[in-house]
Amino acid sequence: MENIISVLKNKSVMKKIGFTLLAFFIYKAATYIHIPLINPDNISQFFEDTDSGILGIANAFAGNALKNYSIIALGIGPYITASIVVQLLQMDILPLLKEWAEEGDVGKQKINQLTRYLAIGLALIQALVMTLGLEAALDIGIENPTFLTFTYLAIVMTAGSAFLLYLSDQITLRGIGNGTSMIIVAGIVSTMPGMITSLVQEYISADAANFGSYSTFALVMLIYIFVIFFVTVMQSSNRKIPIQYSNRPSGSSFQGKHDSNIPLKINSAGVIPVIFAVTLLSIPTTVMQFVPGLQGTTFYLWLTEMFTYTRPLGYVIYVGLIFIFAFFYAFVQINPDKIAKNLQNQNAYIPGVRPGIDTENYISRLLIKITMVGASYLVLIASLPIFATMIFGLPAYVQIGGTSLLIVVGVAIETTKQIKTQAQEQKYSGFIK
Question: Using CA atoms, how far apart are residues 75 and 128, in angstroms rounded to an integer?
Answer without folding.
Answer: 15
